[in-house]
Amino acid sequence: MNxxxxxxxxxxxxxxxxxxxxxxxxxxxxxxxxxxxxxKEWAYTGIFFDMMGAAAPHVFSSAxxxx
Length: 67
Prior knowledge:
mainly alpha; 2 helices
């Protein structure tokens, strides 16, 4: 019987992903709720940095391979 064993690094990455999900959900709620313009501004800023942080490695890696 084979069991999947996660090392300590895998557990930390999983926890980071879970925390990131919670912040994304809270950001979406902040954008949908009426009022709170400052909170909404920070939610949009967080989504912008999250998307740019996700897109940048793809752009740079494809630039390296398409020489």
